[in-house]
Amino acid sequence: MAGNTEGREVLPDKLEDARQAGGKNSNRCTLILTEGDSSKALAMSGLTSDMRDFYGVYPITGKVLNVRKASPAQINRNKFIQDLTKILKLELQKEYTDTSSLRYGRVILMTDQDDDGTHMSGLLINLFSFLWPSLLKLPSSFLIDFVTPLIKVTHETKEAETFSSLREFKEWKEKDKAHATEWSVKFYKGLGSSTVEEGMLYFNQIDIHVREFVWEGDADGEAINIAFGGDPEKRKEWIRNNNQVDSLPGPRGNKITYKEFVNNELVLFTIANLQRSIPTMFDGLKSGERKIIFTAFKIDLTELTPLDVFSSLVSQHSAYHHSRKCISNVIIRMAQDFIGRNNVNLFEPSGQFGTSASGGKDAANEGYLHTKLKPVAWVLFPKADDDLLEYNLEYGRKLEPTRYFPIIPLVLLNGAKGIGSGFSTFIPQYNPRDVIANIRRGIKCEEMEPMVPWYRDFEGEIKKTGEGVYTSYGKCHDVNDNTVQISVLPIGLWTDDYKKILHALKANNGDPLIEDVSIHNDGSSMVFNVILSKKHKKEARREGYLKKFKLEKNITTTNMHLLMGGLIKKYHSPEEIIKDFYPHRLELYVKRKGKTALALTSEIVKLQRKIQFLKDVNRGVILVVGRLESEIIKELKSGDEKFLELSLTMDQCIELEKELAEKNQEVGHLNSSSAESMYEEDLKKFESMLSESEDLNSRKRGMMAMSCQRTVKPKKTQ
DNA sequence: AGGACGGCTAC
DNA sequence: GTTTGTAGCCGTCCT
Q1: Could you tell me the residue range of the domain that residue A169 belongs to?
Q2: pLDDT tens, A149-181?
Q3: How many domains does chain A have?
Q4: A94, A661, A665, A680: most buried, per Cβ within 10 A?
C-alpha cells in the first residue's frame, strides 16, 4: 500500500481513483476516460459504492493530442498525456507483455455517441497505438468502448427498449408500423442527456454496454496510421475508398477490430468534419452557416437582434447540436465587413464586430452585438426557390435545405477558408460584377474572362504573378528625405501583425533598416510613418519599397476544394466553379417556370368557371332567387359552393373577366420568358442592389474624409 | 530542408 | 462563463 499512497500524492485532482488501483488487485481495475466533465458525473452517479473499488474515472476536456504528428517536446508538455501516464503508471518505450506493472488493467473509452465522440475515441486509440502499441496487442483487450444507447422508446404498458444505432431503431419501427406511434421516442444527444437512473442502469449491466477493441494484425496498425499519420495523400485515398459507408452504422457487436473501427466508424467523423469545414459548390456555405441563414429567413430576421438570442434560435430551429458560442462566432464572421473580409456580407454588423487591426479577433462579446439580415440576402436567395429545394430532416422535422442555390456562386464573392480531414480549402474573393459578367458569357456560350481576386474597398493592387498565384500589394509613398508613409497593407496582413513586422525591422541588430515608426489613424484606416536614414531610404527605393517593407502577400488558387453531392471536388480556377454552377441555377428556373405555370393554369380554370356561373345566373340559365343553396350546388357540375359567396351581378363578372385577362397576360409573359430571361431578371436586381451599396459606400467615405480633414487642419496651423 | 504558424469550426 | 489547448491541411515565413 505504500507505493499506492506515494503515487496518489501526484495524481491529478480531477481523477476519481479506483480504491484498488495501484495495489495488488490493480490488474482487475478499470479506468474510465470520459468525454467532458458531465460524462464523468454520469459515470460517478452510475457506479455503485462497491464498483468504486475497481473503477476509476478521469474526464478529458477538449481534443486529445495527435501524438503521431506531434514533436516529442509537444508530447512531453501535454497535460493530458502527463496525467494519463501518472494515472496508469505508464513508462515510455516500455514493451508490455502484461499489465501487472500498471495501476489499472484496462481502459474504457466513454465518449459521446456522435461524430466528435468517435473522433475522441480515435485519438485515444491513436495515442496508445503510437506510444504503447504492445498494450493494444495483448491477448486480453486493453481498450474497451463504452456503448450507450442512441435511442430509447418507452410505452405505457410495455417494457422500454433501447437502440445503439439509428438503423436498429428504423428496423424496429418498420417491423410493427401500426403500433410504432404508441411509443414515445427519446434521442440521446451526447452522454449529457442520460439521466442518473439511466447511468445506474448502464453500469448495473456494464457487460452489455461495452465492446472490446481487438488487434488482429498489421492491418489494424496500418489503418490507424493512415487516419492519423502525416501523409494527407494516403488519407485522401482512404476517404475516397470509404465514403460510401452507410451513415447509419449497424448494430454494435461486443467486439470490433481497430481496422473496422477506423474504416466504418471513424470515417463518419471525417465526412462530418468535411461537411462542416468545406462549403458546397452550390451555395458556398458550410453546414453551420447554412443553418444560420435558414433560421434567419425562417424567423424573418429583419429587426436588429442580440447575437446570443439569435444563436439560441439557430439551435432550436435548425437542430444545431454543438456549442452556441460556436454559432455566434460563425455569425460574427459572416457579418464582418472590414477590408479583406466578405465582399457581400449577408448580415448587418451592429456593434464592434472586429476590425482589420487583428482580422476581426477584436470583436466584442456576443452579448453586446446585434444583427439582422441585409436586404441583399433575399435577392441572392429568392423566396420563389423555397418550394424547389430539398430539405434535411431530423426525426421527421423539416430543417434547413441540403443546399441552397443563390443566384450567383456566393463562394466566389466572399471566398472560403476551411480545414477538414484529408482536405482543406482556400478560395479567394472576387468582384460580384466580374462573376455576373462571366455567368452571362457562360449562358451565351461565350468564352469566360479569367478573373483576378478582388476585395471590396481594397485600394492596393492585385496582379497575377505565377501559375495559380496572385499577389496583393500594399501602398506607400515618400513624405520627405527620411520618411516613407505606408497607407495600405496587402490583403490578409492585419495592422497589429504589421506593427510587429516593422518593429522587427527596427530591432534588427547591427544595421536596422528602420530608425523609427509612428502610427496614425487617418479616420478609416491606420497609416504608418517609417523613418529611415537617407542611405537606407535610397537603397530601399532601389530594391523596391513594397518588397523591402514586406508589403506583398500571395493569394493562391491552388487549394480550391468544394463539396458537390457529398464528394470533394478540386477546382483550378474560379471560372471552373461558375461553369459548374450556372447550369444548376438555370435548371431551377425551368422548375420554377413549370410550377408557376401549373399554379396559373388552375387559377385561370377557377376564374373561367366563376365567370361562366355568373353569366348563367344573369342570363337566367341558373335560377338563384327563392331556392335552397344545396339545390343550386347540386345543379352545378363543379359543385363549388364558394360561387354563392360572389356578388351575383354583371359588375362582378366584368371584374373577374379583368382578372382573367391579367392572368392570361401573366401566362403569356411566362410562356415568352425562358429560364435564361428569368435568370437575367434576378441578376439585374442584384446589380442594382450593388450600385446602391456602392453609392452609399462612397458617400460614407466622403464624409469620413471630411471629418478627418477637420480634425487634422487645426493641428497643421499650430 | 525542416519547423512554426495562421486560418476556422469543433471539443 | 471565459480562457486555453487541441484536431485537421496547406502555404508562408523563419531558421
Answers
A1: 149-187
A2: 788 888 888 888 888 777 778 778 888 777 877
A3: 5
A4: A680
